[in-house]
Amino acid sequence: MSSAAANPGSSLASASPVAKSAPPPRLKVEQVTYAYAAADRSAPNFSLSATSFQAQRQEIVAVLGPNASGKSTLLRLLAGVVGPLSGRIEIDGVGLGDLDLRTRAQRIALVQQESELLFPLRVWEFVLQGRYPYGRRLRFESDKDSLLTGNALAQVGADSFAGRWMNELSGGEKQRVILARALAQEPSLLLLDEPTQHLDVGGKVELLRRLRRLADEHRYTVIVVTHELNLAAEFSDRIVLLHKGKCLRVGSPVEVYDRGLLEQIFEAPLDVDIRPNGRPRVTLRGSE
Amino acid sequence: MRTLTARRVIGACAMLLGVLFVVVVISLRMGAFPLSVRDIVATLFNGVLGRRERIPSEFALVVFGLRLPRIALGILVGAALSTAGAGFQALLRNPLADPYVLGVSSGAALGAILSLIFIPHVPGAIQAAAFVGAAATITAVYFLGRRGGQLDSATLLLAGIVAASFLSAGIMFLMTTLPGRDLRGMAFWLMGDLSSPPPTQNVRAWFVFLFVVFAIAAGAIYLTASDLNLILTGEKEAQHLGVNVHRVKLVVYISASLLTGLAVSVSGAIGYIGLLVPHAMRMLFGNDYRLLIPTSALGGAIAIVVADTLARTVVAPTELPVGAMTALAGAPVFIYLLRRRVR
Q1: What sign does the CA torsion over A73, A76, A77, A83 have?
Q2: Is B40 exposed, middle or buried (0-12, 13-18, 19+ CB in 10 A)?
Q3: Does residue A4 have a pLDDT over 90?
Q4: Do residues A201 and A171 share a domain?
Q5: CB contact A162 to B (< 8 Å)
Q6: So what's the pLDDT on residue A2?
Q7: Is A145 within 8 Å of chain B by CB?
Q8: In this complex, is the C-beta atom of B117 within 8 Å of any C-beta atom belonging to chain A?
Q9: What does DSSP say about strands A189-193 and A108-111: parallel, antiparallel, or unpaired?
């Protein structure tokens, strides 16, 4: 591990402005590694080496890094799609591997690029699918499911177009509906994979404000994978900085946004200054 | 926001059952021996209530001996093919999937013929062999239909069509080399036909066997209906929402193959029902599989009874194979759906 590698002990956790002392943490990632072998006999190809961090209730954690830094691998590990090669991931003190599929879906919701819809579906029908982990077999949806679906739609401001078809929505509207389905799962952990990718600047800011509000008011823990340096600095409580499959640093935006480190990772001349609200801001240094 | 309730499912099914009853009565009326609707209804009710002594013997012979077994077979085949079609559409995430178009029916027919050649007198062997033929074909078509590790819709359909024509050639070859070949038998396996009499004297036991197998396989698919709804929106999304995608796909794969094998073993390869009927039911009742599976089963039964009634009356006294009727209606709809998707 490089000398810059994070050592996320309790000191870092308590450095967070909203950290609570109540054990256990919402999410605990301990020395997690992941590797795959390209061929049976070849040496394992590490796509993520020893990564550790914690996240509390009401926290937004940004997983930051350039392309091929291991961001997606980390998210897949957190979502339980793949199991770690070594190390342990815990949610509220319970190992992720010990949860069955439905229980996991009640704790963790993932927002990502959706597959193409082959059969038409209305917005509310799509969001109602978020209630699946709470049903059994052919159980038809209860009044509670309808109520929570309505709440989820309202929380993302999509209740006005609940009756429209999914394939008629704009990119931003669709993103909100996908988020609403995740909220209908009533998860404790909300994972988002590059949620700002297809949004314009206004949409990006709106989405992150919404996430901030959801985390504050509904005590979600939000993990966002992104490469938007400034949005991450503005809205997150904690940054996990990844580079080439290594976790280089974990901490508050101010702690992580080191000019030399960022320049080296993103391979671009950058300036970092601290804004009046205490959040760092990264700008591309011009050639003048 | 109007969520699906058990009441709505039962209501839709009751309506379709009513339509099926009317269609069955009309079909029972058609034929050389004249019967009035009143006679038919009275005969049916007395038959159901077990009051055989009240039925005139010639009515009993025509209704229970001749016409009803063929209708019952049609109901079974239609329900099985439509349920299998809806299952394959979810399994392959392809709205154009159908046992006939994918070559699965031809595979089942070839399996059935092979069992007739090698183990002709084992009870249930035809059904088992047809199931193996169906399962093997869908496996082959699935792997041939992949491009770059992904299931490609157009490639899958082409693979199915090529598999169907290859397997049909195999059926032709076996049929012509067999002693005592007849063109009717060939049409039975290639086009689908309901005119064959039951293979045993004990007609009732035979139908009980067929309907029990149908109920088990269709019931297994129905139990995955909620899971299939999610799989249709995307497999990885379904997995994240807690669906055991592998297990569901395995259940549907086995059950849909079994249903296809069952239908083909008694009626040959009747085409397009598995495409046409679920599509019509989607337009009528929506895409929720909890409603789509039972309505498709009933709709398939209605469609085959109608098609078979037409097949034996439009050019009477000659009969057409029922598969010719379904292909006449199904092929244009398939082309329409294909073109609408391409656009």
Answers
A1: negative
A2: buried
A3: no
A4: no
A5: yes
A6: 39
A7: yes
A8: no
A9: parallel
Give residue B341's pLDDT.
62
Domain end residue (candidates: A187, A207, A237): A187
- The reply to whether A155 and A165 lie within a common domain is yes
Whether the Cβ atoms of residue A198 and residue A245 lie closer than 8 Å to each other = no
Q: What is the tens place of the pLDDT at every residue in A130-144?
A: 999 998 767 788 889
For residue B59, give how far its alpha carbon lies from the nearest alpha carbon of chain A (Å).
Answer: 43
pLDDT digits (tens, 9 = 90+) for B67-87: 899 999 999 999 999 999 999
**Beta-carbon separation of B242 and A126 below 8 A:** no
Domain boundaries, position B72: 6-342
User: What tens digit of pLDDT does each residue of B293-319 get?
Assistant: 999 999 999 999 999 999 988 887 888
Task: Count other Cβ atoms within 10 Å, centred on residue B178.
Answer: 13
Q: Does B222 touch chain A (CB under 8 A)?
A: yes
Domain count for chain A = 2
- Is the same domain home to A193 and A84? yes
Q: Which residues of A touch B338 (CB under 8 A)?
A: none
Q: Considering A160, A187, A214, which residue would you say is the last residue of a domain?
A: A187
Q: Do B242 and A137 touch (CB under 8 A)?
A: no
The CATH number linked to B266 is: 1.10.3470.10
Whether B239 and A81 lie within 8 Å, measured CB to CB:
yes
Taking alpha carbons only, the member of A225, A280, A275, A286 closest to residue A256 is: A280
Please report whether residue A276 resides in a domain: no
CA angle A159, B288, B104 (to 5 degrees): 145
Q: Which domain holds residue A144?
A: 114-187
* pLDDT tens, position by position, B166-197: 999 998 888 888 776 666 677 778 888 888 77
Closest CB from B222, B236, B241 relative to A105: B241
User: pTM here?
Assistant: 0.86
